[in-house]
Amino acid sequence: MKDSIAPQTQIAFHNLNGLIHGIAIDGHISKSEFDALKSWCQTHESICKEDPFHSFYSEIRDIIKSGILGSEEIFELKSTIQKFKNDFEEKDHVKSDLHYLQGLVYGIIVDGDINKYELNLLHNWLLENSHLKTKTPFDEFFETIRKAKEKKTFSPEEYKQLMNFLKKFLKYD
Length: 173
Hints:
Number of strands: 0
Order of helices and strands: HHHHHHHH
Shape: globular
Number of helices: 8
Strand content: under 5%
Oligomer: single chain
Structural class: mainly alpha
Distance between the termini: 22 Å
Number of domains: 1
């Protein structure tokens, strides 16, 4: 990691990494998911004055600018993320994991829904990152997702509570 990398570019990178994985998780890309990627570009255009973020942003923007977002473009986006990963590594891995998870959650719920498959994959990510289990805000997140995964069905009220919890998590800083 370069010490001169602005923290907001690291946050933007990790959020986008999670967002791309969250969007791709169910294998279907909706208009709202595509719009979320366009919105990411618009939101972060002002911080792309210096490399490596400028180069990273340019590659991402060019893929999204095509107006097509299928499996090939998702692969290109993931490849670009991988290419620049070392440039945006954070010393505090808990923070980078938080920003990734926020992007992942946003990518999952941006289409207005979360299904059992997405919930299972989210739960698997949490299991793979169990070292975060005792840290705030991950502790509550782990428990909420574990309980949700164990349920066979959700009442409309339980589903609404889960979605509200996930939306609230997106705002955690």
